[in-house]
Amino acid sequence: MTDSLLKLTDLGKAYGLINAAKDINLDVADGEFVTFLGPSGSGKTTTLMMVAGFTTPTAGGISLNGQPLDPIPVWKRDIGMVFQHYALFPHMTVAQNIAFPLEMRGVAKRDRRTKVEEAMEMVGLAGFGQRLPKELSGGQQQRVALARAMVFKPRLLLMDEPLGALDKKLREHMQLEIMHLHKNMGTTVLYVTHDQEEALVMSDRIAVFNQGRIEQVGAPRDLYEAPETKFVADFIGETNFIAGQAAGCGNGCASVRGLNGQLGAPLVDGAAAVLAVRPERLRVISNTTPGAENTLTGTVKELIYLGQSRKAIIALEDGTEVAALEQAAQAEATALAIGSQATLSFRARDARILADV
Amino acid sequence: MTAGNRTLWLLIPAVLLIGVCFLYPVSWLLQRSVSEPVWGLQNYATIFSRSIYLGVLWNTITIAGVTTVLCALIGFPVAYSMVHARPRIRKLLIFVVLIPFWTSILVRSFAWLVILQRGGIINDILTGIGLIAEPMDLVYNRFGVLLGMVQVLLPFMVFPLYAVMARIDGSFFRAATNLGATPVRAFFRVYLPLCLPGLGTGAMLVFIVALGYFITPALLGGRGDIMIAQLIFERIDEFGDWPLASALAIVLLVGTGLLFAIIKGVSKLRRGRI
Hints:
The structure holds two protein chains of two kinds.
Chain A: E1 4-15, E2 18-29, E3 33-37, H1 44-52, E4 59-64, E5 67-68, E6 79-82, H2 94-104, H3 109-122, H4 138-150, E7 156-160, H5 168-185, E8 188-193, H6 196-202, E9 205-210, E10 213-218, H7 220-225, H8 230-235, E11 240-248, E12 253-256, E13 259-263, E14 272-277, E15 283-285, E16 295-305, E17 309-316, E18 321-327, H9 328-333, E19 341-345, E20 351-355
Helix pairs in contact in A: 2-3, 2-4, 3-4
Chain B: H1 2-7, H2 12-35, H3 42-49, H4 51-84, H5 87-102, H6 105-116, H7 121-128, H8 142-165, H9 170-178, H10 183-211, H11 215-220, H12 228-239, H13 242-272
C-alpha cells in the first residue's frame, strides 16, 4: 500500500502504567471508509483522538499524506470531525455553525455563503440556515454536524460514534446517508463505533480493537467468515464455541475434539483451542444421513421462532449449548421437538480453530 | 384554577415583607422627596443641577462600573480554575473565595487600613528594603476603595460564572479548534459567548450591589470618592435634610431599576436574533 493517506506506526498512548492504546499499526488508503470497532475502553476513541490531535501519543507516530502529523497542532491539521454529541455551537445558527471552519480559514464572505448553501443542500437541510441547533431534531443536528465537518473539504473525516444518540430507525437511515456522502465526496473516513452491525454495513475495512490493541483488520466479510482470534469471532456476529485441545492435521487445518476446521492463526499441537462455527453454518441432519462430516449430537433445549428463520438451541453431552439457525423453509422440513435428540453437521471450511485465551 | 388559588396564600409572608419593609418606606421617601418644602420637583432639580451632587452620582457610577470590570477580569480566571481543578483544589478555591463573605465588612475594611496605610505593613516593607523612599498613598483614595470593594464583591461574580462554566461541555472548544480556530479564537468566538449568561448575571449583581455601597468607600476612600449612599447618610445625619436625601434614594432606586430593565431588554434581543 504505497498510496496510503493515513499511516499509524506503532502508535501508543500510556497513562502511567495503563496502556490506553498500544502498538497500533494501520494504513488507510485515500477514499477508504475504515471503522474502529470495539467495546468501550478498547482504545478506539483514544486512537481517533490522537489522529485529531486532542491526545498526544506517547509512542509511535501518525502521518498524513506522508507528512508527520505530530508537530502540527489541532487547528492546522485540516481534519474534519463529527463529535459524539455533535458539539454544535449553541449560540450560532445552523448557517453560522457551518460557516465557522470557512471563517477560520479566511474564506471571503460571498464564497462562504455559497459553500454553506451547498453543504446544507448536500445534507438535505436547505432552508434551515437561520435555525438554532436546539430547534432541530437529533437527526437534523447530526446532518448539520456532518455539513460543518465536510464544508471545508478536509482530507480526512473522523466520526466518533456519531449515530449513538439516535433511535434505531433513524440510525439505519443515517448509516445509508453517510455511506452515500462518502461515495459522492470521496472523503476518507475513520469511523468509531461499538455497534458491530453498523460496522459491517458501512465499512470498507474494520479494525477490531480490544484492550488497547488492534486484534484484526479486514473487510467485513473477512472478519465475519475468517476471524483470527476468539475475541473477533465472539464480538462480530453470533458464534458457537466448542472448547478443547488443538490437534494438527497440517496444511492450514486443525481439529478440536475430532471436529475439523480452518486454522485462524498458527497454533501449537495440544494448545487450548476453540472451534468456532456460525449458527447459520450448522445443519440439522437425520441420524441416518450417511457420510456426514463433523457431527454433533445433543438434546433440543429451545426452539425460537424468528419469522424468516428458526433458531434451535441444542445442549451437547458435555453441557455446551450451541445454536443452529435455519431458514424457514428448511426448518419446516426438519421436524424438531424440545427434549428430542438432534444431530448437527458442518463443513470443515465453515469452522475456525482459534487459540482459547 | 382552584389549585392556583389554593396555593396563593403561600405568597402572603413575602407580600407582607415586601409591603411593610420595602413598598411602604419607599413610597414614604417618594412622598417626602416631592412634597417638602413645597410640592414639586425642586429636590430633583437640585440634585441634577449642582455639581457636587452630579459629581457624587458620577463617582457612584464609575466606582461601581470599574469594580464590575475588575471583578469580571479577576473572577473569570478564578471561576475557570475552579471548574477545571481537581475536586480537592476546587473545594479549597471555593473556600478561599467565600472567606470574605463570612467576615464582617467592618473588620475587612479596617484590615485593609492596617495593611495599606502610610505606616502599614506594605509601606513599612517597601521603605524598609529601600524600594521606595517615601510611603505611598495606598488608601483614602480611589485605589483603596476599589481594592476593598472588589474583594468583597468578587464572590457575586465568581459563583454565577462558575455555575455557567461548569455546564459548558469541553467538546465545544475541541470542535472549534478542530474546525481551524486557534485556541485564542476558539476562546473569543465559542467559549466566551457561552459564558455570557454567567458573566451578565455576575456583572449585574456586582454593579447593583456596588451602587449602594457605603462602609467601604467611607473607610477606605478620600473626599473625592464619596458615593451616593454616603451622601444620603450625610444629608440626614448632619443636616436632617430628609427631602433631599429621599430624592437621592429615589434616584438610586430608579437608576438601578432602569439598568436592570436595559440589561433584560438587551439579553432578550440577543436571544431573538443570531
